[in-house]
Amino acid sequence: MRARIGILTVSDRAYRGVYEDLGGPAIQDYMSEVLTNDWEPVAQVVPDELDAIQSALISLVDDEACSLVVTTGGTGPAARDITPEATEAVCEKMMPGFGELMRQVSLQFVPTAILSRQTAGIRGRALIVNLPGKPSAIRDCLDAVMPAVPYCIDLIEGACLTTDESRIKAFRPKSK
Amino acid sequence: MRARIGILTVSDRAYRGVYEDLGGPAIQDYMSEVLTNDWEPVAQVVPDELDAIQSALISLVDDEACSLVVTTGGTGPAARDITPEATEAVCEKMMPGFGELMRQVSLQFVPTAILSRQTAGIRGRALIVNLPGKPSAIRDCLDAVMPAVPYCIDLIEGACLTTDESRIKAFRPKSK
Amino acid sequence: MRARIGILTVSDRAYRGVYEDLGGPAIQDYMSEVLTNDWEPVAQVVPDELDAIQSALISLVDDEACSLVVTTGGTGPAARDITPEATEAVCEKMMPGFGELMRQVSLQFVPTAILSRQTAGIRGRALIVNLPGKPSAIRDCLDAVMPAVPYCIDLIEGACLTTDESRIKAFRPKSK
């Protein structure tokens, strides 16, 4: 089974075309570098609107059958930043450890890491993870959480992801 | 007053008897090792069902008058894992610091620690804490949080717990 | 524009006058030491009542036009401690990174830091941050989060805060 990975760019400016989407391509580059299983990206760009983000997340999981959906953008404190709320609204269960670890890792680079409200959760057989908007921060966050992502997706019965171990060593405990 | 400590094993397999409950006994052994006050365990095993977990938690606090209730199992991302949701549903206030610290400590051992959704909260005069299912992880998590547990239970007017200081040094600030 | 900073002491005993409010003055001293922009404090004392705390927070943000509101007290596990619940009830979005970092920093001093339920959130153009009741813990927590506070308030279009860099270096990323 070919794994499908949703890449959702949340940005008013990228959506209107005033600003080149750098976050989405950064995620796709990262996955190409790290994943060794057969996979394909399903990329979308939406504005910072609750309905638009929720609909895109639902469609990526329910219609596109993505096992992993990563968002970029909209996690800050500004009025238009609502990606975490949209994520929580469509998830059946939340995974607080992802946001905690990503903020902790980002804090090693900038004290404003605490302003990121990024979270993660489970919808059906998909893991949804919020990432920051800035490409360098995207890589730092993915490096932190990726070792746990394949096993998480095994547990929710999504696609089997494998990684280039020289880059990211996916950890799968021996038994449940 | 003899302290009562609820030990709730949440596991479909342990409930059906297909699998020996290792988590519950590991918690009881740990408490026997660490606590120096008079106490007794109140152990129960329930399946991974929201109603069953909630009813057991309510009964352990309201009927059995436990001052501390520790659960084991059901904190992962899988469809049947709902212990944190059941815990939140019966608590009047949540204690996010417990889950944060337990995940942080577990991260020193396995990168998949971020997949644990364990939390803690207060119901009446009881502190409820979710622990992982695996006995070795149970010990690591209890070692991390136990220094703060007796003072927490003092503050909610539960039983007075004392510990073997060579094992766990309970911290009680001088004044409120 | 002169920045306004709300300082809300939440304490039954301070409200009734049985106990001198030490938390509020500690926050004001800290801000005087650290801030270099023109600002004025708006101080209030309320009892540990949900309605009173919520009304005070709403008034400090909506009527008093504070860009930053810091509370002290009421974040523990005791029955009367409900400052985090009141904060969450009046905020449009929550900022989990503040509580996580403040607990982590406090853990370096006392293991009971995990008992603090302090949180932070955004209401309109104001950042609301819960601090502990104890003056020394207030300073440790503010030292941890203040480098990120001015940029946070920029993003929500509140007043421009500047700091004495020998004390706290406010971090503002070059571009969004």
Task: Please provide a written account of the structure.
Three copies of one chain form a homotrimer. Chain A has 176 residues and is of the alpha/beta class. Chain A has one domain: MoaB/Mog-like domain (Molybdenum Cofactor Biosythetic Enzyme, Chain A), CATH 3.40.980.10. Chain A has helices at residues 12-16, 23-34, 50-63, 83-90, 96-107, 135-145, 149-155, and strands spanning 3-10, 39-46, 68-72, 93-94, 120-123, 126-131. In chain A, strands 2-1-3-6-5-4 form a six-stranded mixed β-sheet, with helices on both faces. In chain A, helix 2 (23-34) runs parallel beside helix 6, helix 3 packs across helix 4 (83-90) and helix 5 crosses helix 6 (135-145). Chain A is globular, with a radius of gyration of 15 Å. The relative contact order of chain A is 0.19. Chains in contact: A-B, A-C, B-C. At the A-B interface, strand 4, helix 5 and helix 7 of A face helix 5 of B.
